[in-house]
Specification:
There is one protein chain. The chain is α+β, with helices and mostly antiparallel strands and 468 residues long. The protein has 21 helices and 10 strands. Helix 5 packs parallel to helix 8.
Amino acid sequence: MATQHLAEWVLDLQFSDLSEEVVNAAVKSYYNWAGCATGGSQHPATTIAYNSLSPFFGKATSTLLGHEGMVLIDAQHAALLNGIASHVHDYDDTHLDTIIHPAGPVASALTAVAEWKGGFSGQQFLLALVAGIEAECKLGLAVWPEHYDLGWHITSTAGSIGAAIGVSKLLNLSSSQIAHAIGIAATQVTGLREMFGSHTKAFHPGRAAQNGLMAAILASNDYTSSKTALEAKRGWAKVVSNAKLNVEQSLATWLGMDSANSSGLVQRTGNSITGRWEILRNSFKPYPCGIVCHPVIDGCIQLSNMMKSEGLSVGQIDAVRTLVHPLVLELTGKTTPRDGLEAKFSVFHAGAVGLLYGKCTPTEYDDSVVQSAEVICIRNMIQAKAEKSLAADEAHIDIQLKNGEHLVLEKHIEHAVGSLSKPMTDEQLTKKFIDQCRSILGSHTEQASKALWAIGEVSDVADVIKML
């Protein structure tokens, strides 16, 4: 059965099973998450949640990121608030096959527990992170795309289970306890796509982290659930993806229960290894918005630089035409965003700031920028047309100048920066981390960055977490 099979896989997974490439991917995933959570720690979504919930905080055991270890709260609320902070700028990682942001729920829960319980090495921590990410992404694949099309935010619906599995692995639960943790997390389905563009979108991965942590702790004390929570007639997969045909077979395929499938959970049988690592298909964003916007941003930034080199200004633009993958307009088709959160789902705003400023950072999503007359002027010139032949990381942009001049500038982006075909380098990830954290961590930013890159080598990850 799927639930028990997944539980046993989690129990059996050892650090020695992880290749150097997988370990490096886990380090990058946590490094990127830590930068995003620190960078989002001062956002109104995070501070409102903190102030609202502070009367309910319990024993202070876990760091609220963004305060260099000076603010401790209980593990449950730390998981929630750090999860909110990590996602609020929409700058976190993305598993492109499912659009899950995998580190958010899992890392937020593990970070809180690692300090609360203490004494976990970097290897133990990274192993738990990999287990949680693999589980949530495989479950996401099993119900994709019908689950997402119904309106569920897959990052949190699958993330609750991923967080439960990560914490279960860190706490060394038995296979029976892990199965119960899966069920307890599965029954706490969280996240509607209708919330995109509001504070509540960021609440989703935070709540998923909190739910998963709770599930694992309850299960560790022998709290029970259904051991067929994933595959049962009224279980998670069928309920959250009731439009998907043969969802039981899909679960079996992606969890590696079908030996003929090469894309399931990575498993070793004797000298043979089957399956694939989803963490190796994780990507990191160079821009803080919906990832499907990134090809247009790439193209517009390059066009902005070209215009400057040719002595042209944005004031000479009459129209901007873009061809994009159909998902771009479905996910980021807001033409008149009212604030920074809504603008993260506007390819029109993304293109406008790329052309106007030649960059796209969290600053370009401040409310004042979104509402500025010059941005709105360029935004209104941008036209976007869906083209099925384009890949999700591909776009074509051309610019028509005023006064009937010829089309003099155009750009085709085959693969956006941050895609699997053109991933961010370690140097680019480091710059991203420092740019997000400098105003918060000050002179300690580089020290925190170096410690995070070396997290796999430490004897107690709590020593690194306290630096954030």
